[in-house]
Amino acid sequence: MNETQVSVPLPVRLRFGHAAVQHLADSIGVDLLHIKGVAADASLRPDGDTGSDVDVLVRPDHVARLDAALRRNGWRLYSTFELGSPFGHAQTYLHDAWGYIDIHRLFPGIRVAPERAFDRLWSERLTTEIAGVACAVPTVPAQALLLILNAARSTGSSRRDMRYAWDGASSERRAEIEALVRALDAEVGFAATVGGLERFKGERDYRLWKVVSRGGSRSEEWWGRMRAAPTLSDAVRIAVRAPLVNVEHLAFQLGRRPSRREIAIEFVARPARAVGEAWRALFDRRSAR
């Protein structure tokens, strides 16, 4: 008897991915909110866009518990909090059946403490059914704000989300979103998307939002990350990590665990690329004059 492989459509797989992580969270007492993609309210994605992975925002105190459970149940680590993004906000896993999942311990652009931010969103949560499983989601204005903040550091479909989340919002909805922006201290990230970022030049995270929303070199990004760090010790840790190789990401690029030699080559290549980017950025600025 010949085996038959069936290709599962991405939107279906994503829904089952949401359901799978919710089932796992319920079994270990973890609080999480499903965000973006198929979890978003239909009014915020009228074109039916489902994204490409599962995103959840996890109560910060529960992150370690969920991480251990994911690893026990077939999810493999793809990228870490420390090396996965300029904001250190999410950790990515890959499952053979459910695909990619990003667990967020905070959401970029929200500057109140992650615990307080989660409590605010959790206290007003709604429930939606995904693949037959009850899943907690933020209120629709909160969902819209998260999509807007996400659009500042993204392209493609995330930028299209802006048309529905902000550009197409009613005056009442905009007022609700702006109230959340103030409550969650999200003015800088919000301005990076909707406009007015230059008003926040004095803020410590201004440079980081400028480079992620408008483009820039890796060295500019790392400088922005250090400037955005809340303490000097945090800035030092970021500076120390700058030349380190993301071994997990390199392994996925190679399709296997990299050798010590390959890690060493990448370690040398990173600063070389940074210098090249810096020179190109300087040349571009001079040419624009």
From TrEMBL:
GO terms for molecular function: transferase activity. It comes from Agromyces ramosus. The lineage of its organism: Bacteria, Bacillati, Actinomycetota, Actinomycetes, Micrococcales. This is Putative nucleotidyltransferase-like protein. Keywords: Transferase.
